[in-house]
């Protein structure tokens, strides 16, 4: 079974990684890229999806680490 999707969201101290449905951030980072890297590791481990948000909260990008029929190359 896949784990919770991991969201990279704006945070008062920079950028946060949050599991779907969690109130509290898993981790907080200075830059969005650091948060993306951390969230990607969690998503890979849990075979879930990485969801990256823009500073205004809208979704910028999604990256699946689950049972994707067309996994990205590289």
What does this structure look like?
With 74 residues, this protein is of the alpha+beta class. It has one helix and five strands, in the order βββαββ. The chain has one helix at 32-46; strands at 6-11, 14-19, 27-29, 49-53, 59-64. β4 and β5 form a beta hairpin. The longest helix is centred in the middle third of the chain and has 15 residues, at 32-46. The model has no long low-confidence stretch (mean pLDDT 89).
Write a concise keyword list for the protein shown above.
74 residues, DUF2188, globular, 1 helix, single chain, alpha+beta, DUF2188 domain-containing protein, 5-stranded mixed beta sheet, 35% strand
Summarize the structure.
Helices cover 20% and strands 35% of the residues. It is an alpha+beta fold and 74 residues long.
Compile the SSE list and pairings.
Layout: E1 6-11, E2 14-19, E3 27-29, H1 32-46, E4 49-53, E5 59-64
Parallel strand pairs: 1-4
Antiparallel strand pairs: 1-2, 2-3, 4-5
Measure the end-to-end span. Answer: 24 Å
Walk across the major sheet and give the strand order. Answer: 3-2-1-4-5
Overall average pLDDT: 89
Q: Which range best describes the helical content: under 10%, 10-25%, 25-40%, 40-55%, 55-70% or over 70%?
A: 10-25%
The total count of strands amounts to 5
Shape call: globular
Largest sheet report: 5 strands, mixed
Evaluate the radius of gyration. 12 Å
Count of structural domains: 1
- Our count of helices gives 1
Order of secondary-structure elements: EEEHEE
Strand content: 35-45%
Low-confidence stretches: none
Supply the helix-strand structural class: alpha+beta
InterPro entries: DUF2188 (IPR018691)
Region (Disordered): 1-31, 54-74
Protein name: DUF2188 domain-containing protein
Biased composition (Basic and acidic residues): 54-66
